[in-house]
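Moderator note: this is an archived Q&A kept for reference. The question asked for a predicted structure of one protein chain; the sequence and the answer are reproduced below.
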Amino acid sequence: MGLDAVPIQGQLLFVGVLFLGTLAISRFSIRIGIPAILGVLLLGLFINVNYLNLSHHQAENLHVFGLALLLFYAGLKTDLAAIRGFLEYGLLLAIGGVIASSTVLGLLIWWFASDTGAALAPGLADAMPLAAALLIAACLGSTDAGATLSVLAQVRHRIPVRLRHLLEFESAVNDPAALLVYGLIVGIFVVSGTDPLSAAGPGLERTVLEGLRGFVQQIGAGMIVGVAFGYVAKLVIDLLVHEKAQLLVVAMSIAFVDYGCTHFLGGSGFVAVYVTGLFMTNLRYRRTDVNHESIQEVLLPFNTMTEITIFLLFGLLVSPSDLIPSLPMGLVSAAALMLVARPLSVLLCQPVSPFSFREGLLISWCGLRGAVPLALSYNVVTAIPRIRGVDPASVEALARNAQSIVFVVVVLNLLLQGLTLPRLARALGLQPEPPVELQA
């Protein structure tokens, strides 16, 4: 029996109780020292209703809707002034770190995973397609500042302010960076329909060039439209907003129109909404009580609701039985991400880092994953069947296991790093910056 057979009053009752449950589980999660979003995810997995009448395509569309808002908010939260003095390092860590960690993780998954991802098969004799391994790794490229900072709140008196600013900045910038890396892999290996291992000389070169051309076009168009909509947002706010409460309607409308227009112009809507949000942080508006901080303030509850919904929906829709075959590879992928890929990406940036080695160790352990990896995993399911060279008999299992691997990695990452991060911060003995003394 589906929810269509339940009266609307019963459906509203179910939704209301469900979201109240997320508040209760969030409070409990924080008390035991794990991120609240992990508790929400596990709540959805525990309830695991199988009669929501929600198709995979509809779920993917809902996640695109959520990603557009999350990236717009990430743009608004990208405070360049807060990381003045280490902006170059922050950009290198956010962009170069995503590329490095995704590449390393993808190669490790390719080496260890069987052709369907249902078993460990070290070596290349029965390896997962390289494109599928890289897509899984690209899904896991983005970190979540909200989860990290909520865990570090237990030891916030030990964490330097500039380190907190760096973690927040990295998370805001590496969201679009991870999406771009994912889009580049899709453009090279999936959209063209070419498997990198079966392509020959000129064909492979042509495939890569076409993928790069599409990638550059999406970035360029996304940035241009994003900047243009930054000015549109200023115009709309100055002309139409006469009270602060209307900012929520304006901000959401701008984000959705921005995303849609960019898509039809051949660009990346995710890049556009992020650039628009970033651009809006540096604009001044006619009303003195309107600025990027006030827009953040009205968007924060909706942004939190969006993130909770993504985690809850994923937990409700994933089948626990689907996780069992991919559990070994999920464990190995989580270990590879936390112990190899993320620390290596931070270590590669250390020569230009203004932070100490001990602070670098904390940064490398702060790579908690959040809503973006789960949302992207829905796209992986539709992308993998379009990889040439995949055995048609195993493509369904590969797509399902790829999504399950992302799920297992996110859960283990939030659980293990969430529980150990405060202990590591205490063990490193970091000291906050001394207060600034006023000169006479």
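Archived answer notes: The chain has a mean pLDDT of 83.
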